[in-house]
Amino acid sequence: MKLFTLGLCATICGFIALPVTAQEEERSDSLASRFRLEFAVPQSPAFNLLGTEPSNILRPGDINELAVAVSNLTGDGLAIPRSFAAEFAPALLIGGRNLTIDRYQARAALYRTRISLATRRSDDASPASSVGWGIRTALIDRGDLRGSEVAGQLLDSLDLRRLEAVRDSIRTAAGILRDAVHPIARAADRLANIIVNDSMGVRDGVIDTLVASLPEADDRARLRSFLENLESPGFDALVRKRIREHEERNWNAGILEVAYAGRAEAADSTGTGLAVQEHAFWATGGLRAGSWGQLLIGTQVGAVRDSLSGDFEAKAALGSRLYMGGNRTKAFVEVEGEFQDSQRPVFLLNSGAEVRPPFGGWVTFSLGVERNRLTRDSDLRTDFAYGLPVGLFGGS
Amino acid sequence: MIQGTIGIDPSGGDVDVEISSGYALAGSYQMMVLPDGLKNPMEGDFLFAGDDRFELGPAADLVGQTVRAQGLIANPDGTGRFAITVRIYQGGEEVGSLISEGSMNRHALAFLIYVDLGEEAA
Fold this sequence. Notes:
The complex is a heterodimer of chains A (396) and B (122). Chain A is α+β, with helices and mostly antiparallel strands and 396 residues long. Chain A is built from 13 helices and twelve strands. Helices cover 35% and strands 32% of the residues of chain A. Chain A has a twelve-stranded mixed beta sheet. In chain A, a hairpin with a 3-residue loop joins strand 6 (275-289) and strand 7 (293-305). By secondary structure, chain B is mainly β. The longest helix of chain B has 4 residues, at 59-62.
């Protein structure tokens, strides 16, 4: 916490020393929003390049769901949909059912690869349509929960003997261990699993089945009382605890992510004059700095078609962010430069903090100075955002 | 709980059983043949040994018996998809499988699969 406070103070002091010529002035939103963390690999590159944050993202769970979605999409011909967004991990869709940990670790980058697709119609008045596509993966992710060490720790929580103890209790109480293949033995198994999994809705029905198997009313009453008060072994809480411990220890683990996205535009929804307008490549590496920090270094390079000349212009962004703190609360300092053909470079020095609230997601607030060498102005900029949590596979 | 019947040929080759955990989920399992193998459970982890295969023996001895597979798996990510598959082999060829799959909204899940070995002529 000392480091957190020191980092925040140092950053704020740094800003006070900088010449700020204009505050809270009218600034191009497109510049400000596009500028921030241009070097960071976006969660969904296609959405990023289209400048959209779709509320309804198709995340198919298996190959059949994807096939149905594509079929629905092309049901009315090959028109570009007004609004479509999909994200999936193709290797998991194809081979997820049979994917063991050893196979995953042998080709982890392949299984972490996610594809995003999106379309957007600019507005109701214009038929012009945009199409975006992107791919991203983590070539290195030392914080991956499917690492052998972590998987081994998770196994420690899953002690089968505890499940057996529950099952034995039920069987003993019911006095039904006369024949293991008797239907009632299966009911006892099922009840043990339900107790472990905490599905109370089904539990009552299975208790009824077991209780009804006893001929004596007194035995039935005793068995019902016993079963209804049987405690859950709490596997869920144990595994959750292991996962949290892992997150606390590895929030700053080494990582190397890369991504590519493209954007094309057409004059109408039938694809007339469809032409690629932009390409972008991202690469971000993260290095662990002790237990208290992480240094991120990233770049984005790309090409954007000039609307007047029709030629592609190169652009690049290079940046670095230093995190200080812990998994749930951390301060950051970042520097970033953006370079584009025929334009003067723009630089950003920024700092802020990220806080993980108890209800999930991330709250980020930042304060920074943006320096435009063309206008020779420096803008003070602030940002406050809440981000939803994203799963490891983002819907695989 | 998943249960079903897979046919084996009593005059065919020896029978093997294999268990695997999909979506790279870690976990533990225990299998036994009921009623004969009740005291000799086959145990293991879904960790670098996800395709564990065990010899069950001659088919003629197994017709009418049941393979019970139980275990626990951990869900480390947000999607919660899981798939546990039990495959039966005879003479080295797969003759059938049962799969317990879906999505779990918790961090650990117990599964239970019963495979009744029925008689099926080749």
